[in-house]
Amino acid sequence: MDPQVFEDWMMYILVSGLVLFMAFIVWDLAKKSKAGRYGTLVLFFALGLGVLGFVIKTVVIASRGGL
Questions:
Q1: What is the CA radius of gyration of the chain?
Q2: 3-state DSSP helix/strand/coil percent for the chain, to nearest 5?
Q3: 32-54 burial string, b = 16+ CB within 10 Å, else e?
Q4: C-alpha angle 66-46-26 in degrees, rounded to nearest 5
Q5: Cα–Cα distance between 27 and 57 in angstroms, integer?
Q6: What pTM, to 2 d.p., does this model score?
Q7: Could you give the CA distance from residue 61 to residue 26 in angstroms, rounded to a whole number?
Q8: Residue-wise pLDDT tens for the chain (67 aa)?
Q9: How far is CA 33 from each of CA 7, 41, 57, rounded to the nearest angstrom?
Q10: Domain edges within the chain
């Protein structure tokens, strides 16, 4: 396997794992702090914006030819 292909696969797999782990941390934080339904929604919305930013950045870079 080409090292570049391996690095690409691992980046997507490991970043996805990190996002899932962060979602677990936010859920646990909301549960332990008794944030309630609205507070939990706000916490996950903030996490979702960060993930959305990463996805948009990846799409923009890929569409520009990998600059």
A1: 16
A2: 85, 0, 15
A3: eeeeeeeebeebeeebeeeeeee
A4: 110
A5: 25
A6: 0.70
A7: 29
A8: 889 989 988 988 998 898 899 899 999 999 999 989 999 999 999 888 988 888 898 889 888 875 5
A9: 38, 13, 32
A10: 3-63
